Structure prediction request, 247 residues.
Amino acid sequence: MTKFSEIGHAKNVANFSEIIDFCKSYGSDYNPSKESIQIPNLETLLINSQTAINNVTENLIEFTNATSTRQNTFNPLKKLFTKITNAVAVTDATKNTIEDTKSINKKIQGIRITPKNNTNTTTKETDTTDKRNISTSQQSYDQKIEHTNKMITLLKTIPSYNPNEKELQITTLETLLQNMKNANDLVTKTYVNLSNSRIKRNQTLYQENTGLYNIVTEIKKYIKSVFGANSPQHKQITRMKFSPLNK
Prediction:
């Protein structure tokens, strides 16, 4: 599916504003009986369209900022978990506990838990194995939150885990975990707002019969009927191009 550029929507609204100005310039010659293309209704539609465009722009900025914040919040995890794993290794934790921390660290690093088959021969069986290995890296944000939670829970079971380094201390890690959850939740919230504002914009601009795109078509028909197909007025209107919404 081809995505319609945000610029394309804004261009449609800008051209619609220009068309209204032309209609006004025709004075009493522009006097349609159809209410939807009368000047007051066109001006209302223009305001609604501009508002819809602005809402999308504002929500897109908020979503972009939220994704950047989440990225920055999660970025330190790989180095941090390596330090945690090394710190656990010098405690009196059991061998199994040390292995568990290594396992969680590998998931954060995106390392395959099962070693990849390095043979040069490619078969359906090895392809399937590789896909299964790749899936164990568990690199989604939700999964990283879960890995961090598991690591903190595991660290709490080690009585001798009491590092002097603040970034490795459990209270610091708990704060980090909460920040990760908050950052992830904000991305979800801002995406919902962005998606809903795009739906509203698309309805305002492209709804059948009432949307800006359809109204422009009706205006062009009216201008053609009043001034003629070869009239300068009709040419003024038809020279402006409007893009439909790609579905």
User: Anything to note?
Assistant: The longest helix spans residues 170-206. Residues 74-183 form one domain. The two ends are 7 Å apart (CA to CA).
